[in-house]
Amino acid sequence: MSVMTGTPRARIxxxxxxxxxxxxxxxxTVVALLTAGTVLAVLGAAGDAAEVWSRFPFLTNLASSLTxxxxxxxxxxxxxxxxxxAQTEANDRAAAWRLAIRSVHSMRIAAVxxxxxxxxxxxxxxxxxxxxxxxxxxxAREWADQALTAKARPRRLRGSMYQRNYLRQVLTLxxxxxxxxxVYATTGMAAEASVSALERIRSEATFLYxxxxxxxxxxxGRWLAQPHxxxxxxxxxxxxxxxxxxxxxxxATIKQLLDAMPASQLAALLPESDAxxxxxxxxxxxxPLPPVERLQELHAELVRLVTQLDRVRQIARVVDGIRDxxxxxxx
Length: 331
Fold this sequence. Notes:
The protein is mostly helical. 79% of the residues lie in helices and 0% in strands. Keywords: Membrane, Transmembrane, Transmembrane helix.
């Protein structure tokens, strides 16, 4: 019983939905044609009952054709309007996805600018240099007590065995951190364009979420799955705006710490020719050795700098995932 009563209701709902989608300008025309067709059909039936049309065969054919046309034209108008509407929706849907593709590819270009040409190789090299710094600090700790508590010697003399062993690790750390800075300089984060590149990523992500997403959902009913949708929604978490500024500040801090440890003067205390030590400024004054805490501070700043570069790699992966997801849905 529910099926019998439900089917007419469903048909009525379908008719109402089709009528709602019909263009407002076509509705009066459809009503007029159906009304005229109904009137002619009633008149034709009355004429048949009175046997009027038998005496006018030509007029009979003409009236019946006109009545059929009055019923057929509204159906044709509805069908054509529906086809045109479907074509328009398909074009709008394709245009919305083209807009999404343009935005994500713009994000990809900015991400390449932000990361540099070969970010993975730079990150691997930085990881190797950080590991070397770990080893240098660990070995420096073994000599720190004897080296830092020994009697200070003037610069014109070689350091003690403890001081020399400690100095070797300090110099290894110094040179390794300097190499790390050189590797970091090859990435996009060291360039001035990093700020504008990250801002471009953020603006395109905001445009995708605030403008393209509602359009696509309305026209297509689909959008990106997680975690890509969440990355666009949480722009500040996915693409932090202060990332380049933090990198610049940490690079400056590392350079200040390196300048506070004059590598050339420290190297002169190692067993080399006396002529090198003779060129040191104020050779009779002792050269203070950097404490272990200073070495650890330098190492910690380098680790923070590498962490920022890892964040850039993460941003590049997020952008690649969003681009691949949009390209897949657009197809």
